[in-house]
Automatic annotation (TrEMBL):
Domain Tyrosine-protein kinase G-rich residues, every copy: 142-194
Pfam families membership: GNVR (PF13807), Wzz (PF02706)
The Polysaccharide chain length determinant N-terminal domain, residue ranges: 3-94
Transmembrane segments: 18-40, 174-195
Family, similarity comment: Belongs to the CpsC/CapA family.
Record's signal peptide: none
Protein name: Wzz/FepE/Etk N-terminal domain-containing protein
Cited InterPro entries: Bact_polysacc_biosynth/exp, GNVR, LPS_length_determ_N
Length: 242
């Protein structure tokens, strides 16, 4: 038998088992679609933006220096926003049944390079609750930063709004189904190829030639039962005639 498998062999195996591969691929896609639609709960996102900037600058010529100071403070602000000092007050205000650590996992704080705008993104299974959490975090942070760092350079730039028909950010049903179909196709094809490669049974005359290293000079065809019966009847008639 062959010790190696060629590309032609792979294509032949895939062609002969194409129906199984397609069936397995369709099954994987249907299962994924069912889980995405009926099992996985949708996740929504809300975003609030705050601006780090002094409200009043007594000396205008120090404006550039103040902007640079605000930019350096943004990294510190990003850490404070997700700290227990802020999130604990948010939980109390909204009467949430979560810990600050759990709420922290729902929050993403980011800002573009050299930008004084800080984005606060919150994800939750409920669209309305995600909006409330995002806005409350911005309000609490604006109040508490004045106490924590004795500064007044935070303004709320935009608040999160609840759409009439919120669109979830996850699960991405189309992506999941396409990925499951691709994985199902690859796995089923690989499984068939592995099984065929490990099969050492002799099925054709080519297998015999490869096994013994000699050419086949003749074949014995299978004799059917009908042919055997016809031969026996002719033999009986011949004996009777004799």
């Amino acid at each position: 038998m062959k010790e190696t498998i060629t590309l032609q062999d792979i294509l032949k195996i895939v062609r002969e088992n194409f129906l199984f591969i397609i069936s397995f691929t369709l099954f994987a896609a249907l299962v994924t679609a069912f889980i995405s639609i009926f099992v996985l709960k949708p996740t929504y996102e809300a975003e609030t933006q705050i601006l780090v900037n002094q409200k009043n600058i007594e000396q205008p010529h120090l404006g550039v220096q103040q902007v640079e100071t605000d930019l350096r403070l943004i990294n510190t602000y990003n850490i404070i926003i997700t700290s227990s000092a802020i999130l604990s007050k948010v939980i109390n205000k909204l009467d949430l049944d979560v810990t600050p650590e759990v709420l922290m996992d729902q929050i993403t704080v980011s800002s573009a390079n050299n930008s004084q705008v800080v984005n606060i993104n919150v994800v939750d299974k409920q669209a309305g609750l995600a909006v409330e959490i995002a806005n409350t975090i911005a309000d609490v942070f604006q109040e508490e930063i004045q106490v924590l760092m004795t500064v007044d350079n935070v303004n709320i730039l935009s608040v999160a709004q609840l759409d009439k028909e919120p669109v979830p950010i996850a699960p991405n049903k189309t992506l999941y189904i396409v990925a499951a179909s691709f994985i199902g196709f690859v796995l089923s094809a690989a499984l068939i190829i592995i099984i065929e490669s490990l099969d050492t049974t002799i099925k054709t005359e080519q297998d015999i030639e490869e096994l013994i290293g000699l050419p086949i000079i003749g074949l014995i065809s299978q004799i059917s039962d009908a042919h055997n019966k016809s031969t026996r009847i002719k033999s009986r008639k011949t004996r009777r005639g004799s």
